[in-house]
Write a structure and sequence with these properties.
heterodimer, A: mainly alpha, B: 281 residues, alpha/beta, 6 strands
């Protein structure tokens, strides 16, 4: 029963959503299942927070390697939750400007996330230096294309291009936009999208029919 | 020397990128920004909207990509408010709702747009594509209050707004999933509403097939797209200011790629010569 019930729920939910999409009088069923979905998503947030507390709490208790990071994570979570639930003006909301929750968002979360993301530029530069080599014909095509897109889609690159003899007659920005991004890239992306969609349909059917069961976890 | 260069400590690369990014902020280059066809198309989509049109703006980005998406949102809000259009902001990303509030307030200060009559921020709703599908015929069912807790009925500009059919244009600032692809599937596919978008430079190639097929009517690609749009609006902002730094960083990375390949070929030639000499001996 432990496995059968989730399988039945999955099949019914999937089948109903497919049928209601093609049958207008049954669209109310789709709305009903959408409501179920939203309730489950909301519960999943609580479950996620609880899971975070348990998993990190255990590591801190065992003083596992790097447990200090887990402690920082938990403290941040609890402090943010506390600010969100408890400290805001009467009649106002925790997300109002000037509340401690808003302060954390504006001055801690936003700059730290931006800093983490911006580190990518440094790692991309380092990785390009080490890995981007014209080792074969295919690698050379990739390298030349990436190089052109990176260098000539910026104002400085366009300025440099305009200094080149003869070549400057070609509008490099337009060439990259029309041919490389609008042509080769779009063709490749379409192929990937179509392939991924067919794969998605196939996996979805396998899940609905109970052939693919890995999402249920281990048997015990 | 070649060996030393080919295994260059990455901290030198980091330092070079840092310097390349900082220099333009100290000594601005003021590089000219050319406007691309895609940006012109995006601009025209808003230009062609009649006065009083209702635009749904979806803020689906986080702090990491704020630097690319936020200037686009600010510029588009300025454009819409100066054309007397009304904006319904919502977010499929939790952080998006707060960025929406910030962008709306800044644009309102600049243009004199009023909350409740010219714009409303409906906030964040979890569920991604399911929210879009569920809100299809009745947005109020999913967004009964705005971000500040005001009920739907008490907001004047929402009178007459039902589902996606009553929205004139969808404008999605999108950095991933859920994002513009979900809007194309649900709102474009089932309700045939026009969609324009602004994406990060990294996610733009993913959206390009939909632009070429006409499912997305206009796109701003990354910070470059944002800066071009600012230039078209004659209102240079954060994106236009950032283009110098972006240019320098790109040139630095390009220089590193050239250097790495020259070293690679020199090494290869040296190895070939050594093996010939060794073979001859």
């Amino acid at each position: 029963m432990k496995r059968e019930v989730p399988l039945i729920i999955t099949f019914v939910a999937g089948a109903v959503m497919i049928v209601q999409f093609y049958t207008l009088p049954l669209s109310w069923l789709g709305d009903l299942f959408n409501d179920f979905f939203n309730i489950i998503v909301t519960c999943a947030y609580v479950l996620g927070a609880a899971s975070l507390l348990i998993a990190n709490g255990r590591k801190i208790q065992r003083q596992a390697p790097g447990w200090g990071y887990n402690a920082v994570l938990l403290l941040s979570l609890l402090a943010t939750l506390f600010c969100g639930f408890c400290i805001f003006p009467q009649g106002g909301l925790p997300t109002d400007a000037g509340t401690p929750f808003d302060w954390i968002f504006q001055n801690v979360y936003t700059p730290m996330s931006a800093a983490t993301y911006s580190l990518l530029a440094f790692y991309i530069a380092s990785a390009s230096y080490r890995a981007f080599r014209a080792r074969s014909a295919e690698a050379t095509i990739l390298l030349v294309t990436a190089f052109m897109v990176m260098l000539f889609r910026i104002p400085l690159g366009e300025l440099l291009w305009e200094q080149l003899p003869i070549l400057h007659y070609l509008d490099i920005g337009d060439f990259i936009e029309t041919w490389i991004i609008g042509g080769f890239n779009t063709a490749g992306q379409r192929a990937i999208m179509l392939g991924a969609s067919v794969g998605l349909i196939s996996v979805s059917l396998k899940i609905l029919l109970g052939i693919e069961r890995s999402y249920l976890g281990s048997a015990d | 020397m070649l060996d030393k260069l080919s295994s260059l400590d990455r901290r030198w690369i980091f330092l070079a990128i840092t310097i390349a990014v900082i220099i333009p902020f100290v000594f601005p280059l003021g590089l000219p920004i050319k406007v691309s066809q895609q940006t012109k198309q995006f601009y025209e989509c808003i230009e062609q909207l009649p006065q009083g049109s209702v635009v749904c703006m979806s803020f689906d980005y986080g702090p990491g990509t704020r630097v690319e998406c936020h200037p686009m949102a600010q510029a588009a809000l300025y454009h819409l408010f100066t054309r007397r259009c009304k904006v319904i902001a919502l977010a499929l990303w939790p952080e998006g709702a707060l960025f929406a509030r910030e962008a709306l307030r800044e644009a309102a200060k600049e243009t004199g747009a009023a909350e409740g009559t010219d714009y409303v921020n409906l906030g964040y709703k979890a569920g991604g594509e399911v929210v879009l599908r569920g809100a299809g015929d009745d947005l109020r069912a999913f967004f009964p209050n705005d971000i500040d807790g005001r009920s739907w009925d008490s907001i004047p500009m929402l009178k007459g707004i039902k589902g996606w059919d009553t929205i004139d244009l969808i404008c999605a600032w999108s950095m991933g999933k859920p994002g513009v692809l979900e809007y194309v599937r649900v709102v474009g596919g089932s309700y045939h509403r026009p969609i324009i978008t602004g994406t990060t430079a990294v996610t733009a190639p993913e959206a390009m097939p939909l632009v070429n097929s006409g499912q997305i009517e206009g796109i701003l690609q990354g910070m470059r797209g944002a800066s071009e749009y600012e230039v078209m609006l004659k209102r240079p902002g954060a994106a236009a200011r950032g283009m110098d730094a972006l240019s320098m960083a790109h040139v630095a990375i390009a220089a590193f790629i050239i250097m790495a390949n020259v070293i690679y070929w020199l090494n290869k030639r040296r190895d070939r010569r050594n093996s010939l000499v060794g073979g001859g001996a």
